[in-house]
Design a protein that fits this description.
The chain is an alpha/beta fold and 312 residues long. The chain folds into 2 domains: 37-126, no CATH class; 140-311, no CATH class. The chain has 8 helices and 11 strands. The chain has helices at 3-20, 50-57, 69-74, 140-151, 183-197, 215-235, 248-257, 261-277, and strands at residues 40-41, 65-68, 78-79, 86-98, 104-121, 125-126, 154-156, 164-166, 171-173, 290-291, 310-311. The protein has a 5-stranded mixed sheet with strand order 10-7-9-8-11. A 4-stranded mixed sheet has the order 1-2-5-4. Strands 3-6 form a two-stranded antiparallel ribbon. The radius of gyration is 21 Å and the shape is globular.
Length: 312
């Protein structure tokens, strides 16, 4: 399979789903209704990453378990006749070799090699064990609060109906917590903006200079939204698209112009997710944490998006 053809086909399918409102990250879901899990190999439990994870979720199956036909056979499961596989893409950057002492070492390839695997969902098989929807062993809201506190981010609860990150001021502005219908919505919004915050030059160093309505702005919003989607699934919190659907046209435009963009965006989104989750376990190198209390009188919303504000 030609990588360019594969990526074009995948991008065209995702554009179609965006136009129909069925792309997984623009549909709200609740962890109370779905198992807090992401696509993973049914035998090894290894999680699929980036565009592979996104693509498998685009297939619309309710079960997060996938494997190849051969793996299913080895486990005693049978893929039903007529079921179609989904393709995932892998890149090999190194190979194992023996050094002069006989030790196995990783050697970088002169050029990366691409591989494709055809996988089936557990719902496409007979005799696969029933999916057990286990709840996380942690409290999602407690973990989300820990992330915000450990990050050292400045969050000002000074808005009425907007949420945004200001790169020049390096601040997140959101409505007061009492303005949200529950804590999950509050943390979902705050963590989305933390995704933008991660792009600061002192952190993951993404391009945050795009003005509202430009391709660069749409690209950053796509990364933050996918990062928020991946993060919600791994933390077990509600993913709520809110006003993010307003960006769909911009996403479609940038994807149509470059069929590699969804792969770059998904890769960056995984980096955002991993970066943010690090704050579950360690604090940033900061002296203070500024999570402001709700003001008595929230500031009125602005009429339009400022050029220095990346919205929720």
């Amino acid at each position: 399979m030609n990588p360019s053809d594969y990526r074009r086909q995948l991008t065209d399918r995702i554009i179609e789903q965006l136009e129909n409102g069925t792309a997984p990250w623009i549909k709200p879901w609740s962890p109370q209704l779905l198992p807090p899990s992401v696509p993973h190999n049914a035998l090894t439990s290894r999680r699929y990453h980036g565009a592979n994870s996104l693509w498998l979720q685009c297939q619309g199956h309710s079960d997060p378990r996938w494997c190849t036909y051969r793996q299913a056979q080895e486990a005693g499961w049978q893929v039903r006749r007529g079921e179609k596989s989904s393709v995932v893409e892998y890149w090999q950057w190194t190979r194992e070799e023996k050094d002069a002492t006989g030790q196995t070492v990783e050697v970088k390839l002169d050029a990366p090699r691409v591989f494709y695997a055809h996988v089936f969902n557990a719902t496409q098989m007979d005799h696969a064990p029933e999916l057990v929807a286990s709840k996380p062993t942690w409290e999602p809201e407690v973990e989300a609060e820990k992330i915000l506190q450990n990050s050292g981010v400045t969050i000002l609860q000074d808005q009425t109906d907007r949420a945004f990150y200001s790169p020049t001021r390096d601040e997140i502005h959101i409505p007061p917590r009492v303005a949200f219908i529950n804590g999950q919505r509050f943390y979902g919004t705050a963590l989305h903006e933390l995704g933008h915050w991660s792009g600061h030059p002192d952190r993951l160093n993404r391009d945050l200079s795009g003005l509202f309505g430009t391709p660069a702005y749409a690209q950053e919003e796509l990364r933050a939204e996918l990062g928020s989607f991946f993060l919600a699934a791994r933390l077990g919190i509600t993913h709520d698209i809110g006003q993010h659907a307003a960006y769909v046209k911009g996403w479609i435009d940038v994807l149509r112009k470059d069929h590699n963009e969804i792969f770059r965006a998904s890769h960056d989104a995984e980096k955002i997710c991993d970066f943010v989750l690090e704050f579950q376990h360690q604090k940033a190198n900061v002296t203070t944490v500024a999570l402001s209390p709700s003001p008595a009188v929230p500031q009125p919303a602005k009429a339009k998006v400022h050029e220095d504000e990346l919205e929720c």
